[in-house]
Structure formats: structure tokens, C-alpha cells
Design brief:
The protein is an alpha+beta fold and 308 residues long. Helices cover 46% and strands 11% of the residues. The strands form 2 sheets. It has a 5-stranded antiparallel beta sheet. Helix 6 packs across helix 10 and helix 8 crosses helix 9. It starts with a helix and ends in a 5-residue tail after the last helix. The protein binds glutamine.
Length: 308
Amino acid sequence: MDKNLSQLLARACDAIRNEIGTGQVASYIPALARVDPKKLGAAIVTVDGQVARYGDADEPFSMQSISKVFTLTLALEQIGEKLWERVGREPSGNSFNSIVQLEREHGIPRNPLINAGALVVCDVLLCQRSPDQAIAAILEFVRSTSDDASVSTDPEVAQSEAETGFRNASLANFMKSFGNLTHDVDDVLHVYFHQCAIAVSCAQLARAGLFLATNGSDPQTHRPFISAQRARRINSIMLMCGHYDASGEFAFRVGTPGKSGVGGGILAIVPDRAAIAVWSPALTSAGNSHAGTAALEQIVREAGWSIF
Ligand code: GLN
């Protein structure tokens, strides 16, 4: 562990401790409503192998929509540019589970990082795979990028999402009616709920995101996960779309590609330098971690890591 980096991280997180607990935990998924809103964890993994941890950095939390970055990567590897015939790559300006745009835009979601887009991505991953095989492929990808075979899905969270996922079921059925889902709606939802229920700690998540900061190849294991061009493009989608209708605010305050989840986690990518993961479960009205965003803003400012 690098002392300077650890000190920087501690200084940045200590400075925003009064933000912890502002906002609400995601109560619409009952299993997430039980999480302690006072948690704060953060981890930085740099491209040259330094690691820094703060607070609850080793406590697993629900990845939720951060998983959409990993499924997008897999789908692009699977069908390449053809993905863009079924999902756009523009910011939505709407909430993550909005249905309004879908009708006007004929069942083509604005981008792969909102729920509708992630459901299309799941449909792609179901090509030549059973739902269980698709879930296994997603888990395997997160395990290999994090270089940690212990990463798993929390079955209680997946079950809780399935029991209350009426909005996601609506989105999926709506897209099915436009012919933009080719598989059974229940199978698509099953895969989606399980990807969201993957549990990771900040330390695991930062490590899992590192390939996006290093042109698609893992700097430690040297595994070439994706091409440099694809890594750049995924980063650009994260920057523009990773925080839904608050993506502009995140770019303004933090200034890096990032992806949030309603579990309270955020993954931020600093190209050529580091991956950062933060976790604090209380959310803004847009569904992004309040204290997590404040921590990232402070970390990136202190490190001078904004891409702008
Ligand atoms: N599982 C959540 C949902 O489908 C994911 C949303 C999120 O993290 N923004 O609503």
C-alpha cells in the first residue's frame, strides 16, 4: 500500500464525512432498504499497482447498475457494432427506469446504462446461452477483471428484485412489443436481476474496473480483455450516461467517466492512472450515492485526476 496515496484518500474522505447519511437508501428493493446508510468505503487501484483503502472498503455491497458496464463490455465483445442497432449511445436526460422515451423512440433505449438499455444487453447475452449460463458468464467476467474468484451474486437481493421489479418488467414487455427483445421476457429479467445482485467491495470493484483505465488490458495479469478503442468508447459512454439524468452534474463535479448503482456504489475511471470505487448507501433523488459523489469529487480534486 502506498503511503502517499493512502493519505490522500484518507484526507479526501475525512473531509466529506459530514455528508454521510444524507439522502435515502433504495427502499424500492426491500433487501437494499436494510443496508446501513452510515457506511462509507473507498478504494483506489492505480495502473502501476498501488492500492489504497478507506473505511468500509472491504465490505461487500450490491453492485446494481454498475454491473451494466461489465455486461455492456461482454455484449460488445459478442456482437460488436451491431449492438448499436438496438440501443443508442446518447444521454437520456431521464431517470434510470423511465419508460417515456421508449415509446417515442420505438423501443430503442437511449443508452446501455439505463435499465431499458441494460435489458437489451441481457437479451444479447442470452444468444446461445441459457439464463444460468448468461449469469455465469457475467459473474466469470467480473471475477476475471477483479482477479478474485470469490465474487458472487447475493441470492436474497436477486429474489427481492424479482419480487418487486414491476417497472423493469414493464420496460422489458414494452421493448418486446417493439421486437427489441428476442428472448423470453422472464429470462431477460432473470439475468438482469442477477447481474444487479452481484456483491462486491470497493477494493474488488476498483480492481475490476482497472482494465478500463489501462486501454482494455489488465496491467497485472496482462489479460487483454478488450481493445484500447473499445475501452475508450466505454469510458465515453460512462461519462455521458453513467449517472442517468445527473450525468452532467457528475461530469461537472468529478470530471471522470463513472457509473453509479442504487446500492450506493460508484466506479470512476481515470484513464491511464487509476480506477476508484466508493460506496455509501444513501442516495440522491436521481439514485446516485450522495456521500460517494462528494468523496469522489474530493479524491479527484486532490489527486488532480479530472480528465478536463
Ligand atoms: N436493480 C436496479 C433496478 O433495476 C438497478 C438500478 C440502478 O442501480 N440504478 O432498478
